[in-house]
Amino acid sequence: MAQACRLGLLLALLLPVAGASLPSTVVRLNKAMLSYVSEMGRAPLQRALQVTVPHFLDRSGEVLQPTRVQILDVQVSRLLLKFVDDFGVRLFAAANFTIKVFRVPEPLELVLPVVLLADARVDQGSIGTPVVSVSSCFSLFNNAIVLDGGHSVAPALLVRVQKHIRAVLRNKMCLSVSNLVQGLNVHLGTLIGLKPVGPESQIRYFMVSKPVITKDYIALDINAVLFLLGKPIVLPVNATRFTLPEPVGTTGAMATVGLSQDLFDSALLLLQKAGSLNMDITGQLNSDDNLLTTSVLGRIIPEVARQFPEPMPVVLKVRLGGTPVATLHTNNATLRLQPLVEVLASASNSAFRSLFSLDVAVNLSLQLSVDKVKLQGTTSVLGEVKLTVASSNVGFIDTDQIQALVGNVFEKPLLDHLNALLGMGVALPNVVNLRYVNPEVFVHKGYVVISSGLFYQN
Predict the structure, then answer these.
(1) How many CB atoms lie within 10 A of CB 289?
(2) Is 10 in a helix, a strand, or coil?
(3) Could you tell me which residues are beta bridge partners of residue 357?
(4) What is the residue range of the signal peptide feature (predicted)?
């Protein structure tokens, strides 16, 4: 069984999932995200530009003299990124290279100002991840500034040294940028990794189309597929394409994430199929305030008192046969559960005997929040828990009386169970080491929007 599950997950990573080609999630990365990347990217770019310069052949004497050249320091004073419509991202970087030329009799130190420009295309990869590729890259050099002690250098030698260094940097700087981008692509590949939802369930995200790029944002249409025991949870074919309106969310947010109704339906279907929403409610027989005993039931159902002259413990077996229904309205999310509750009593031989069963309908308010990379929920009961008798082995049951009794012992354990379950959360689209910060959640008709900052931790 375990081997079959692993095979199913492997195939899910390699193959598109049938019936899951429509986006259930839209992720917009806004200008504020580019500003953050610019700030965080200066140090890695500085390290990447600290390249090796081969020896300079000094032709000023009668014999060619190889002279060692070393980059002592690189300072990126400016790094700017901006979106390019229908293409990707443009990079502008201004850097100062401090370079030492180990000439004889005294070394030469100079500072070479450089401007680096590059265009990077953002596309959809073959496995459903964003892929960035450098399409053009070039550099502009200003004249080198000779530091103190090097003013005696011959102008012709300085020209030749600069020419040598520029030729090397012109090639190696763009190669360094390409290498950084390749490292970024490896990181972006973790978007499609399976994230656990429960002990036997996972969620996987992947892009379903090319990104939409404007001057203000890049939008990724992403589908979420939930797995139970290695098999995908597939909604009916009438699932609709989700598009995220604009403007939406908080102005100035780094990321705007739209979650469709279908995603919530899939998550609830997963919980129902996994049996996670089922529960047993029991009470302690020797507790003074325990209402789950045959003696308490016998006060309102005479047949229970006749069959159980001695008090025996009672168990409520809550089983959800139908899928819960989440409804998203503006500023309001609700959840409706309709479980079957079977009431059983312990007989003298320790076996449980079914007394009666109830069809239950409960409406819940659903409050959503985000913690790091997970969407979490908490619930509270709206109105009364509705009960109707489905079957009875103990004769007539007064619904009003049983409503008051069972409603009291059912509501709190149900909320505790649901809130513990929803508090575990479902992973949002993310890559390794990236998390959401200061998120705000907005509920709209048919979808949910998360506006958030981002934080990357090395």
Answers:
(1) 6
(2) helix
(3) 342, 391
(4) 1-20
**387's tokens:** 């009960």
Residue 115 contacts residue 123 (beta carbons within 8 Å):
no
Q: Concatenated DSSP letters for 388-427?
A: EEEEESSS---HHHHHHHHHHHHHHHHHHHHHHHHHH-EE
Rounded to an integer, what distance in angstroms lies between the CA atom of residue 329 and that of residue 382? Answer: 15
Other beta carbons within 10 Å of 38 = 19
Residue 219 pairs in a beta bridge with: 28, 212
Sign of dihedral through CA atoms 293, 297, 299, 305? negative
Query: What kind and span of H or E run contains 95?
Result: strand 88-101
CB atoms within 10 A of CB 80: 12
CATH number, domain of 277, equals 3.15.20.10
CA dihedral (404, 409, 414, 419) in degrees, to 10, reads 110
Question: Is residue 201 in some structural domain?
Answer: no
Spatial contact of 450 and 376, defined as CB atoms under 8 Å apart: no
- What are the C-alpha distances in Å from 322 to residues 234, 263, 365? 16, 17, 19
Decide if 141 contacts 159 (C-beta within 8 A).
no
Give rounded-to-5 percent helix, strand, coil for the chain.
25, 45, 30
Three-state DSSP at 336 gives: strand
Are 158 and 249 members of one domain? no
Q: What's the pLDDT tens digit per position in 360-379?
A: 999 999 999 999 999 999 99
- Return the number of other C-beta atoms located less than 10 Å from residue 448's C-beta: 20
AA identity, residue 348: S
- Kindly give, in sequence order, each residue whose CB lies less than 8 Å from that of residue 348, ignoring residues fewer than 6 positions away: none
**Residue 13 pLDDT exceeds 50:** no
pLDDT in tens, 306-362: 999 988 889 999 999 888 999 999 999 999 999 999 999 988 777 889 999 999 999
How many domains does one find in the chain?
2
Tell me how far the alpha carbon of residue 334 is from its chain's centroid. 23
Judge whether 206 and 127 are in contact, CB under 8 Å. Answer: yes
CB 202 within 8 A of CB 195: yes
CB atoms within 10 A of CB 340: 16
Query: Is 212 a member of any domain?
Result: no
Does residue 18 lie in a domain region? no
Q: What residues make up the domain containing 307?
A: 233-456
